[in-house]
């Protein structure tokens, strides 16, 4: 399908319109893998499970779909061709592992949607009853600092010797492989500095990727990105690229998110996404684990309505969030939608047969069904 010039932001907006104005991103993959007994103290982090236990990754994806997520982020965040090769995989095998990360997420989506279409009802007790929503697969690309596995994605300090050209050489092939693996969108996550944002913008244009991308930055002060570079400049850079369809923040403490949404909104009209970590914790690159660094943050979910009102339309969770977090986010957003619906003069309606005409993201993301059993009365695909 075509990804027309200048139309990227419109495509995500149309997806959001079809989904009722908001969508829930999944939660922490590594956190949930650990909950199932995974040992992630490894240079490859969660990407290790692409070759040791792909079925466990698929189970976690399914957990998040049941919890109400509409966007699955693949297990490729810390999976790089260079990293896999350092573990003895050939270049071809390394690329196959990246493709596998997308396939696993697509398989989870197919299982989820197939079971719903077959049964017409929910799965397990407690599953969010939002089965008819479209589901997107976002192919994760972690920052160069994530590959280094030294915590530098949380400082943005790559040293003087690292340039845009260095980073392009590092990221180019992975972007090409993931953009042709069947995902709907590329998720550039945990971007710590302007240098890497510039790299991604240039690569998207040079590689002429056929799927759009989102840019997600990190902050540790609610003002700038973690390197100290201007958030406004980083967002403006992302906004200038017509292949970028959403811009936002991930792996940042919840208490900083509201002010960041307001500053992002000044620089772009594109949809804003936020998927914070659980807050109150810090990442120890030596232990390769999260450690408590003081009082836990306020209740994560209590912020959700405020973020949505401020302008974020894609909301989920990053490190230390779980399916329970995502379930609570979905419920909070649905509650807000239902509350606002009564004030609207005209209910939002979804035209039948409009999906293929208006969405140019992969058609496999969407399925057709004639019944609406959602607990949330927001419009769903019909
Ligand atoms: Zn995170």
UniProtKB/TrEMBL annotation:
It comes from the Eukaryota. Its cofactor is Zn(2+). GO terms for molecular function: metal ion binding; S-adenosylmethionine-homocysteine S-methyltransferase activity. Residues 11-333 form the Hcy-binding domain. Keywords: Amino-acid biosynthesis, Metal-binding, Methionine biosynthesis, Methyltransferase, Transferase, Zinc. It catalyses: S-methyl-L-methionine + L-homocysteine = 2 L-methionine + H(+). InterPro entries: BHMT-like (IPR017226), HCY_dom (IPR003726), Hcy_S-methyltransferase (IPR051486). One of its GO terms (biological process) is methionine biosynthetic process. Signal peptide: none annotated. Its EC number is 2.1.1.10. Zn(2+) binds at residues 251, 318-319. Catalyzes methyl transfer from S-methylmethionine (SMM) to adenosyl-L-homocysteine (AdoMet). SMM degradation (by HMT-1, HMT-2, HMT-3 and HMT-4) and biosynthesis (by MMT1) constitute the SMM cycle in plants, which is probably required to achieve short term control of AdoMet level. This is homocysteine S-methyltransferase. It comes from Zingiber officinale. The lineage of its organism: Eukaryota, Viridiplantae, Streptophyta, Embryophyta, Tracheophyta.
């Amino acid at each position: 399908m075509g990804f027309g010039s200048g139309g990227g932001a419109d495509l995500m907006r149309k997806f959001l319109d079809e989904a009722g104005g908001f969508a829930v991103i999944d939660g922490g993959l590594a956190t949930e893998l650990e909950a199932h007994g995974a040992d992630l103290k490894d240079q490859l982090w969660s990407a290790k499970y692409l070759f040791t236990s792909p079925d466990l990754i698929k189970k976690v994806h399914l957990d998040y779909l049941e919890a109400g997520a509409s966007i699955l982020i693949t297990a490729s965040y810390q999976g790089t061709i260079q990293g896999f090769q350092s573990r003895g995989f050939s270049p071809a095998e390394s690329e196959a592992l990246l493709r596998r990360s997308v396939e696993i997420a697509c398989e989870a989506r197919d299982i989820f949607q197939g079971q719903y279409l077959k049964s017409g009802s929910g799965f397990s007790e407690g599953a969010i009853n939002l089965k008819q929503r479209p589901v997107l697969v976002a192919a994760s690309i972690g920052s160069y600092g994530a590959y280094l596995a030294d915590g530098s994605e949380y400082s943005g300090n790559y040293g003087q010797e690292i340039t845009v050209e260095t980073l392009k050489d590092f990221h180019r092939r992975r972007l090409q492989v993931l953009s042709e693996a069947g995902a709907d969108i590329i998720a550039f996550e945990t971007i710590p500095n302007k240098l890497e944002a510039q790299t991604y913008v240039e690569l998207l244009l040079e590689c002429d990727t056929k799927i759009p991308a989102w840019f997600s930055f990190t902050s540790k002060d609610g003002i700038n990105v973690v390197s100290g570079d201007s958030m406004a400049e980083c967002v403006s850079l992302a906004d200038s690229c017509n292949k970028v369809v959403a811009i936002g923040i991930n792996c940042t403490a919840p208490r900083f998110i509201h002010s960041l949404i307001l500053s992002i909104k000044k620089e772009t009209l594109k949809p804003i996404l936020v998927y914070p970590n659980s807050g109150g914790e810090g990442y120890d690159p030596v232990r390769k684990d999260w450690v408590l660094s003081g009082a836990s943050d306020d209740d994560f979910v209590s912020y959700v309505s405020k973020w949505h009102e401020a302008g974020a339309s894609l909301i989920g969770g990053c490190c230390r969030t779980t399916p329970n977090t995502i379930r609570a986010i979905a419920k909070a957003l649905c509650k807000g939608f239902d509350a606002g619906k009564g004030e609207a003069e005209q209910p939002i309606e979804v035209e039948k047969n409009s999906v293929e005409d208006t969405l140019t993201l992969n058609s496999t993301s969407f399925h057709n069904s004639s019944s609406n059993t959602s607990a949330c009365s927001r419009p769903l695909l019909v």
